[in-house]
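Researcher: Batch entry, complex prediction.
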Amino acid sequence: MTRRPDRPGEPDLELDGFLGDVAGTVANDLDANAPQPDFEAMLARAQALSPEASAEPDPELDAFVGAVANHVEADDGGVMPDFLAVVTRAHTLDATVVPQSAVDEVGTYAPIIALRDVARQRRGQTDPELDAFVGDVRGHLDHDLARGEQAGDTATTAEADASRRGVFPLAIAAGLLIAVGLGAALATWLDLGGGALWNTGEGSRSEAMLSPRPAPEQESEFHGHATPRPEPPTPPDAAPKTDAVPEPAPLDEVATPTRERSHKATPKARPKSKRPSRRQRLEALEREANAAWQAGKLDAAEVAFRAIIRLDPRGHWGESAYGELFTLQRQRKRSSVSLWKTYLVRFPSGRFADDARAGLCRRATGDAKAQCWQDYLDTMPRGSFRRQAQRELDAAAQQELP
Amino acid sequence: MGPHATQGPTPAPAADAGEATLVSRARGGDMQAWAVLYRSHFPAMVRHVRFLTGDAELTEELVQEAFARALVKLPSFDGRATLSTWLHGIALNIVRNHWRAQRNTATAHERLRNMHAATDAAVAPRLDQAHLSRKKTEALYAVLETLPENLREAFVLRDLQGNSPAEAAAKLGITPGNLSVRATRARERIRRELEQLGWLSPKGARP
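Model: Structure tokens for the complex:
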């Protein structure tokens, strides 16, 4: 080792000589015993120093954590995107950055909805065997319902009672009218009343989610039960008013199969074949509802969904229509309370029962609120909102403390 | 390390030119652009928060809050990090704030003691698989509640979400070494608690 020439201070030749000797010795020693590079040894040591590597393997804990991770991964809890809620919240946080006009603009968008059924399928919860079984049962029920619908909806309204008497001929007229383009008028006529939350799923609608809907149509007369109903539809043999329908069901789609069948039908069956089947009517109504919704004609869409419920009040068509109405009501910022109630009467364990019960509880007040959440827990101890239910009950219990 | 170590997180949409354009438009007040960003990042954000909280309903609330705050802060987003990283950071801060607001160590330990009775090892084998997984999840999150948040989030990001040390460290803004130290400490404490709850066999008894 030599003294650096730029080192300040007095030179110390004695120290420099001493250090020089030591440096020479070390250099000689290195020459004789220089260690060889050993990358693997270095890597092994580095790994040993790594806290993760030094941790003792724990397969039991890993298995436990893996089970939890899988459970959390599989259980998305039905978390729904709600862009309008986000923007509304952002507006309350800082109205200068997110002005009211932004909230208003987003309010005109079609909803951004996660499709529950799609999510379920993604999680592999489909069961073809069960589906086939349910399909058989549904077919049987459809048959019964087709007969039952002739007696009308079992709803206890006087309105329903009044319509029940003439439902069968009207149902025939309904199918034909839908086929020739009077679906909207008929649907209004068959309307129920109510309100609601989630889309159960049309991909085509999802594509339109981010498109601002066209300028809303003039508000129709539809406002639930209180609205005066339009005149009953024109008899089937009258000239169809095709301009009254958002997207008329093509005549061929409905009528062609019937015509084909009629060639082979027995004379006894022939008169019946002129009437579109119940399924065809439901399909036509669903097409009409979706077309109206995509066109931003929310009133017409609502009317058509309600008509589906009327035709299939306790079947899968009806339940899906409820789901659509829930979404529609949410989009329109209308209360879904009455719709949730009727839905729960018909589908106490249905696909949307969890959300409907929670929705009702959220809107309850006073003692009824706690009672509602207690009922929720009793009815659906594994429901998605059980934690909120427990929190609400805890909060209610706290309030009762002196 | 963890069982999910090889399974990366759900990839967020790449911060490509298209996203940069959307961000630029969103910063200019284009709500449709922000809606597209929201839709594309929503699933990953839900997953991120869901794993942190273990509570679906809470996740919905916190993710909404995270996006709302992101929308408000968007003018300050400088693009140094990807939008995904930036959003996840906002979400993490919101989750931390929630934890701090809820923090009550005594309550957390009390809950853990109650859980002990509810998860009697003798009962566990009789539970069906789905119920068992649910019980395990409840137990683990109850244990996590008793951990300091720095250990908790390191464990969740590393062991539960399955991020690599580098990914998890980047999300937490710490070094990978630091991340590993925290995750290892968390595992030690979690094992101890799970043993006490009867979910894992005592260390000495393991083969």
